[in-house]
Amino acid sequence: MTAIDESVPKTLVVAVAVALVCSALVSSAVYLLRPMQAAYGALERNRAIVTAAGDLGANAGDQEIVAAFLALESKVFDLRTGIQSDLYDAHTYDHWETKADLPGEYVPIYFKLDKAALERVVLPIHGKGMWSTLYGYLALDADLNTVMRLVIYQHGETPGIGDLVQDPQWLAHWRGKKIHDDNGALQIAVTTDTGVPNQHRVDSITGATVTSKAVGSMVRHWMGANGYALVIAQLKRERDFEGESQ
Questions:
Q1: Are 112 and 96 within 8 A, CB to CB?
Q2: Axis-axis angle for helices 62-71, 3-53 (nearest 10)
Q3: How many CB atoms lie within 10 A of CB 104?
Q4: Cα–Cα distance for residue pair 62/75, rounded to 1 Å
Q5: Residues 25-60: b if buried by 16+ CB within 10 A, e if exposed
Q6: Which member of 33, 149, 159, 195 has the greatest number of CB atoms within 10 A?
Q7: For the chain, which ranges sit under pLDDT 70?
Q8: How crowded is residue 17: how many other Cβ atoms within 10 Å of its Cβ?
Q9: SS3 of 226, please?
């Protein structure tokens, strides 16, 4: 056998060995980085929650975000009954991650308190956009009907068009809008129809009409009978009971 003939299998052995080593290194890196990626994802989610709660500015550091998030009171509710559940720790429970495995609709809700009195409640919401699923947090005032802040946490919409739903100027228009009218009818809407009273209307975004209206549909869904209706009714009963007992 010539030197050239002997070099071919040696080269193949070396190539296979290098490929196996590289594969092992990549697998190890993915495994080791997974907790860091999960922690980063949780941090960004927590940032969205505390932003909706109105506790921190956009330049808050990681430690401030974690501290503000842990300062919020959190509870998990069963959407089917509107009653609190003790199955999960609301500070660590990601219902979007585990939703497919759940027997019911368990959702974490966050409460900002002022000397034990409810100041703001933060509700996770999600829905179909034009190209992706939109994820966000809707903060309501203590009356559980007035929008204090809307945060679009995550989406996959077209850059420069659909992502305008994250524009702070447009999101600011949600502040102070009423979800229901005085008779309890769901009225909040994203539309250019001036027939909808201003207190319930958020104008759609020119150039991103479909995605901005999708945000409106998402909010309407979660504020309706198939969303948080039973939870909000329960929270109102608890609030009224606590007010009478004081």
A1: no
A2: 50
A3: 11
A4: 23
A5: eeeeeeeeeeeeeeeeebeebbbbbbbbbebbeeeb
A6: 149
A7: 1-41, 55, 57-58, 99-104, 240-246
A8: 10
A9: coil
Residues 6+ apart with CB under 8 A from 84: 75, 76, 77, 78
CA distance 120 to 110: 8
CB-CB contact of 212 with 165 (8 Å): yes
pTM of this structure: 0.79
Other beta carbons within 10 Å of 169: 8
Tokens of 53: 């709660």
Counting every residue, how long is the chain? Answer: 246
**Cα(63)–Cα(165) distance, integer angstroms:** 28
State the DSSP H helix or E strand holding residue 34, giving kind and residue range, or none if neither.
helix 3-53
Pairing of strands 73-78, 106-114: antiparallel
Q: Contact at 8 Å (CB) between 205 and 165? A: yes
CA distance 178 to 174: 9
Question: How many whole angstroms separate alpha carbon 220 and alpha carbon 224?
Answer: 6
* 202-244 pLDDT per residue, tens: 999 988 899 999 999 999 999 999 999 999 999 998 876 555 5
The two structure tokens encoding residue 135: 């994820």
- Going from the C-alpha of 197 to that of each of 176, 185, 216, the distances in angstroms are 13, 13, 15
Six-digit token string for 103: 């027997």
How far apart (Å, rounded) are the C-alpha atoms in residues 124 and 129? 16
d(CA 91, CA 157) in angstroms, rounded, equals 28
CA angle 152, 155, 156 (to 5 degrees): 155
Looking at this protein, which amino acid is placed at residue 41? G
